[in-house]
Design goal:
Number of helices: 6
Strand content: under 5%
Largest sheet: none
Length: 186
Amino acid sequence: MGHGGNVITELTTDHREVDELFAKIDAQPVGDKQRRKLVDELTIEWVRHSVAEEMYLYPAVRKHVADGDAIADKELSDHAQVEQHLKDLEGMTADDPQFDPLVAQLMLEVRGHVRDEEGRLFPLLTAACTPEALDELGDKVRAAKKMAPTRPHPSAPDTPPGNRLLGPGVGLVDRARDLLTGRGKS
C-alpha cells in the first residue's frame, strides 16, 4: 500500500488490492493453510487502510461534507464490525469450523463498506474539496499507513486525537511482532 495520487485514488487502489486478496482466498481449498496466510495479509492491509481513513478521511468528511458526521459515524461503525471479525479470526487455523463462515461474513461486510465509500462518500468528498486538498489528504493517508498497526485492536480509539497519539506506537509493536513471527510474508 502506498500508491500515489489523491486520497480517492489511493484508497480506491487499496480497495482493489483487498478484492484481489479475497479472490486469492476464494481460490484456495477450504481448510488449506494458505487461506490463513492470505487472511493475515488481508488483515495487515485492511487495518493499515482503516487506520489511515480514521485518522484523515473521516475527519475531512466531517469537516467538508454535508451531513458528514452521520456519514463518518456510519463508516466508523462498519470499521468496528470488520475489525471485530478480524480479531475473531486472528487466533483461528484455516481448518477451524468457524474460520470459513467468518471469512465469508468479513468479505460481505468489507465489500458493502467499499461500495458505500466509492458510491457515496468519495463523490461527496470530491465535490466538497479542492484537488489540492485531496492531494494533501492522499499524502497524509500514505504516511499514516506506513506507521499504522497491522493487527486488529477493536478497543483502540478510532477518532482523533486518540488514534493519532496511540496508532504509531501500536503500529511499531505490531510490525515488530510480524517481523519476529514472519506474519504477512507469503
